[in-house]
Amino acid sequence: MAFTGKATYTAGAGFPEIGEDVSDIVGIISPVETHLLDAIGDPMREAKSTYHEWLEDSLVPNKDAISDSSISDPDGETSFDVANGERFRVGDQIQTAGSEELMLVTGVTDNTITVVRGYAGTAPENIANGQAIHILGNAALEGDDKPAARFTNRIRCGNYTQIFTSSVEVSGTNIAASHLGVSNEMDYQKSERLRELIRDLENTVINGGQPSANPQGSGTVRRSMKGIIQSIATNVFRAGDTGFPSGTGLDEAKINYVLRQIWENSSGNVDLIVVGGYQKRKINSFLTASRSFGPADSTYTDMVSVYESDFGVCRIITSRWVPQDAVLLLDSSRISVLPMAGRSFHFKPLASSGDYECGQLIGEYTLEFKNEAAHGVIRDLAVS
Fold this sequence. Notes:
By secondary structure, the protein is of the alpha+beta class. It has two domains: about 35-55 and about 155-290 and about 300-380, phage-related protein like fold; about 65-140, Beta Barrel (M1 Pyruvate Kinase, Domain 3), CATH 2.40.33. The protein is about 15% helix and about 30% strand. The chain is built from six helices and 18 strands. It has helices spanning about 35-40, 170-175, 185-205, 230, 250-265, 275-285; strands at about 50-55, 65, 80, 90-95, 100-110, 110-120, 130-140, 155-160, 160-170, 235-240, 270-275, 305-310, 310-320, 325-330, 335-340, 345-350, 355-370, 375-380.
């Protein structure tokens, strides 16, 4: 018999009685993938409070900037103001960005430093207000006393937990009845609501924000976690910004620019690039011009899953919940999604007051996002 694609049924005389052929699997069309959570993986610990905290530290900075609009002799000025004088010590060799000239610091008074221009035989070059200064290192005197101790202060960072919940209610008749494709209606409803909650958790991890007032929550203010996009403050780049590669379309120049900025200014090791569908297709197009196929090839491949640059090897993750104009560049070793202790997703049966069974799926989670300067985001990219 030819395949018709239909289930055969009839109760007519002379025909066998055949029931509808329904597969014992229910197809779900709604998107439920959580690729970012899968990439981050399960945490090694739990949050112990509704405000989860961690400590962050940094090294003593070796970069500053000239902050002096009164410079009158750009290639001969021997004393000028900087933004942070405490970063300099007598004996430091310094060099302005883009210059071959070396200078030696001979005095530091508040935010004013005195230098020897053209140190080590280099030629003096023009300096300007706002120019970056790199501190190469300090040359100590032989037999000199110890320098004044310098240190950085550890800072406490944190994020609030957010409760995710959904209720399940199934009538007694529904439980007793036989269903096509479902062996137990209560278990099926639990499974579906859990899928929805995990989907919403990934969406919130990416896009969530905290209320500006009473972020700890109250009887009238809901407690919510701050997501990745709102947590990134240092490395936020927008198409069209001064100094950022031109154009609004995503290309390698923009990806490499951000990777380089993160590499230069932090110890971050970006290993995840997270994008929506449109920007993923733009990344795939990076290799379009160099692809070749033989006459016998029957498969056309147009996908980039890993991007390797001078600044790291990045796995590319596609998430439906990343804004279409955005690209996230993340160090996954500094990201965790933690449940509150004893509050990972679970089902809590509730008392029934009638002919039904009911309960509640509950989970309480927070995002631990360490060293926000080790991550980056590009916004305002073209989406068509």
